[in-house]
Amino acid sequence: MSTNAAGSATTATTATAPAAVDYTALARSARAAGRAMQTASLATRNAALTALKQHLATHRDEIARANAANLAEARTMVASGSLSESTFKRLDLMGDKDAKWHALLEGVDDVVGLPDPTNKVTLATKLDDGLELYRVTCPIGVLLIIFEARPEVVVQISALAIKSGNAVILKGGKEASATLRALHAQVQAALASVNLPRDAVTLIEGRDAVQALLDQDKYIDVVIPRGSASLVRHIKDSTRIPVLGHADGLCSVYIDAESDVDMAARIAVDSKTNYPAACNAAETLLVNEKVVKSGGWAKVIAPALLSAGVTLKCDEATLAALRTNDATAAAITRGQVVPATPADFDTEFLSLTIAVRVVTDVHAAMAHIHEHGSGHTEAIVTSNAETAETFLRGVDAAGAYWNASTRFADGFRYGFGAEIGVSTNKTHARGPVGLEGLVIYKYRVVGKGQTVAEYAAPGGRKYLHEPIAVTEAVQKRFSH
Amino acid sequence: MSTNAAGSATTATTATAPAAVDYTALARSARAAGRAMQTASLATRNAALTALKQHLATHRDEIARANAANLAEARTMVASGSLSESTFKRLDLMGDKDAKWHALLEGVDDVVGLPDPTNKVTLATKLDDGLELYRVTCPIGVLLIIFEARPEVVVQISALAIKSGNAVILKGGKEASATLRALHAQVQAALASVNLPRDAVTLIEGRDAVQALLDQDKYIDVVIPRGSASLVRHIKDSTRIPVLGHADGLCSVYIDAESDVDMAARIAVDSKTNYPAACNAAETLLVNEKVVKSGGWAKVIAPALLSAGVTLKCDEATLAALRTNDATAAAITRGQVVPATPADFDTEFLSLTIAVRVVTDVHAAMAHIHEHGSGHTEAIVTSNAETAETFLRGVDAAGAYWNASTRFADGFRYGFGAEIGVSTNKTHARGPVGLEGLVIYKYRVVGKGQTVAEYAAPGGRKYLHEPIAVTEAVQKRFSH
Predict the structure, then answer these.
(1) DSSP letters of B295-323?
(2) Is B222 in Cβ contact with A426 (below 8 Å)?
(3) Which CATH number fits domain B5-118+138-237: 3.30.420.40, 3.40.605.10, 3.40.50.620, 3.40.50.2000?
C-alpha cells in the first residue's frame, strides 16, 4: 500500500481480489494513525464525534439505500434458507420506523458526554525533590474488531475508539457490506473534517483479511472478536495479539438452603428467559439439597420455570422431587422435564433450556462452577450474608452476584454508557468492557537532570517515595 | 498426578524422567491452590510471609550447603568455559559475607509491609435503591514464572505471589537446581504452617516442562518470562496464555535544541553506563542538529561519553562533528568512535556502546523511536516545557522521561517496593510491574431479588447509576 493514508483504506475496502491488499501496510497505517490520535485533544476527539453524528444525519438516505440493497439480497438468502431470519432482522439499520437509526445517532451523542478515559493520573509519587513520577492513562493504540451481522457496530465502535484516542480496524460480515461501507465513509469524513487521520478507522472485508491481520502483532495491540464461541476460539488460536472477549457464557444460579424461594424463582426465571441467546443468560441451576427436600424446588421454583416455557434437564435428585408433585409430574410426561446428561452441564444452550443439579452447600456450588463455568457471571440466592460473602469472594468469575439476575452483566446496566464487549480474561479488562478497557497507561518521570548513580552511591541521595495528592489542579496539567 | 497436594509438587521437582510428570494435573493442582489463596485473609497471607522468613533463617546452613554444591559444579563449568563468570556470580546466594542473604530475608519483611493489592474497591455504583455494583480487585489466579540463574528469585516471587493471593509455578535454571529445591522446601513449609496449600508455590525443572505448561491455558492465567530476549520471544510464540514482559529494551535519549548540554551529558552517561546490561539502559542517542552545530555534541556530550569508556557508533553528521575537535578526533583514530550501520539503530548492545544519530526536532526523534524502539523507556532532555509535553504525550512507550536518566525505570525506584518484571505490553500492566500487576478485578452485584425484566418494561424501574463514595467504611467491608 504505497498510497496516502486516505487512499489506503479505500484500497482495502474496494479491493475485490484479496491479494491486492497489503495488510502489513494497512496495519502500519493504522499504527501511524493511532499515534496521531494519541496526541489529539479531548475537544478534537469530541468534535469528531459531533461531526460524525451530523454526517450520518445528512447522509441518512444514502445509507438507507445501501442498507436496502443488503436487505434485498439477504431476503433471497432467507428464502433459500442460507440466512436465518434473526440475522436478517439484525441487518436492518432503519428498523422500527427509523427508531433504531435514531437510537444509533443518540448513542454517538452519549459517547460525547462520557468522561475522557485518557490522560487520567492514576498514581503520583514524589521520588525526590524535583523528581516526580506520574502514571497517566493513554490509548492502547490499534484495535482490531471482528464482528458479525449488525452494521451499526461500525458507528458504535468507531465512536468508542475515537473517544479513547485509539485507531481501529473493523472487519464486518459480508452480508452487510454495502451498509458498512456507507457508514464507514461518514466516519472517515468526520475524522477528516477535524483534521484527524482517516486511517484511524479502517474497514476491511474478506475472510483472508482476518488471518493476514492476526499476524500483524507489531502494529495491532488488541483483538476484540464479537461473535460466536467458535469464532472467538479460532481467533485465540491464531494470533499472538492479546484477545479481549469471551468464548462461552456458561452462567449459573445457585439457590442456597437459606433463601426466599419466591425470590429464587424470580431470579432463575429472569436469568434464563429474559434473553436466552445472551452470554449472561443462566445455563445451569444449582439447587441446595434442603431446597429440594423442603419442596421449594418442586412447588415454587420449577413451576415458575416451567410456566415461563423453560425445559428442565434435571439430575436424579431434582427430577425425583418433581415426580412427587402433580403439576411438575405432568411436565415430565409431556417431555418439558428430562434427565440431564453429563454434557448438559458443559452446554451453553442459548435457548429456553436449563440444566439443574442438586448441591450440598455453597462450597459444592463453587466447585461445580469452577469445573464447568466459563468465568462470566455467577449468582447466589441466599438470605445468609456470611454464605453470600463466601460465594462473592470465592467464586472465580468476572461477575459475582448476590440476589440479582445474571442478566445485569452488561455495560449499559453497569452505567458504563457503552460496551465494547464482555471479557472473561484474567488480565487487563474483565466483565463488561467500556471505555476504560480501551486505555493503558504510561509512566512519566519529570526531573531536573537526575542520574541513578547519585542515588546508588554510598552516602548518596535517598528516594523519598512520598505520594503526591492528585488534586484537580494536578489532574488539569494532564487533561488537555 | 494422583497424589495429594503436597505430594504433587514433590513429584514434579524430584522426577528424573520428564515423562513421569503429568503437567496437566500439576497445573490443575496449582489452579485449585490458587482458588484457596483467593479466599485467604490478608492476615493469613502475611503470616505465611513471616513464617517464610523464619523458616529461611532457621534453615540457612542447609540452604547454604545446597548453594555451595551448585557453586562447586558451576566452578568447573566456568573453568571449562561452559558457564560465564557473571552467571556464576549470580548463582551465589550467600555472597558478600551473607549480605545478599540478609537482604533477601529483609525483602520478605518489606513485602509484609506493603499494602494489600487485593480486595480494593475501585468502582462503586448505586444501580438502583438496593441494587449496588462494586468492582473489587482480586488475584489473577495462577502465574507461571520462567527465570534464569538467580536462585533468590524463588523467594522474591513466592513472596509477591503469596501477598497477592496468587498461586505460582516457578521454573528456574538447572545450574541452580539444588538451591532452588532447598528454598522451595521452606516456602512450602511456610505455607503449610498457616494452613495454606503447598501447591500455591510449585517448582518445576527441565526444559520439557516449559512447553507442557505453556499448553495449560485452561489452568494458567499469565506467563512472566524473566530472561533473554530470545527466551521471551520463544515463549510468546509458543502459548495462548497472556505473556507479561519485554523481549527488548531498546531505550533512547533525545537531546533537544533547547537543552543544558551538561545535563544532557550527565543523563546520557548515566543512561548508558550505570548498568549497561540492564533493559533500561540507553542504546540510542538522538541529538538535535542544533546541538551538533553549536558544538555541544563534540565539546561536551561526546567527550563525557568517551571518558566513561563508551564506544560511539555515529551517523555521518555526528561523526563529522567529532572530526573538528582534537580530543574526539583522537577517539576516532583509536576506534572508540566508528560509523554506524543501519542495524546499529535496532541493536540492544547491552554493553558500553551507543548508536548516535542527528535529528531535526522532537517529532523526528519520536518518529525514530517509534520505528526502532521497543516501547520500554524514552527520555528527552530539554528546557522547553512545550517540547517536553509534546514528547511525553506523543511518545508511545511504557516510560516517557523529561530530564531524567532512563535507568530510573525500575519498580524499587518507582517506590513499588517490589518488582516482578518490566512489561512493554499494551494491555494489563505496562512498565515496572509490582503487586498491582498481579491482580485483576471482579464485579460484585448485590441486590434484593431484582430482575432485568423490571427495568426493561415500559414504565418500569429506571437505573440510577449514582456513584457510591468509597469511604474507609465501605472499603472495610471488603478488606478482611
Answers:
(1) THIIIIIHHHHHHTTPEEEE-HHHHHHHH
(2) yes
(3) 3.40.605.10
